[in-house]
Write a structure and sequence with these properties.
Layout (H helix, E strand, L loop, with lengths): L4 E2 L2 E5 H15 L3 H21 L3 H14 L4 H8 L1
Antiparallel strand pairs: 1-2
């Protein structure tokens, strides 16, 4: 019997992955499984952000800086109204 191996997962065949997915479906149910996947994805995103050292405050400041440099601030609107 020839096993179908997945290149990214050494040692795990398609059948083993299918069995894991089936067990997860039986344990958590079809309603809870998508929410668990979303929570896992957001947890991984938060972990990656913590590794880079950037927080939401840093990102919002970086988004505001290009607007200030290009002259799209409140001063340009005040000059147009005068």
């Amino acid at each position: 019997m020839k096993l179908l191996l997945i290149p990214g997962l050494p040692g795990m065949s398609v059948w083993e992955i299918g069995l894991v997915v089936l067990l997860a479906l039986l344990l958590f149910g079809s309603r809870k499984l998508p929410q668990l996947a979303r929570d896992l994805g957001s947890g991984i995103t938060e972990f990656r952000k913590s590794l880079t050292g950037k927080s939401e405050d840093d990102q919002s400041q970086e988004e505001q800086e290009p607007a200030r440099k290009s002259g799209r601030g409140s001063r340009t609107k005040a000059k147009k109204n005068s």
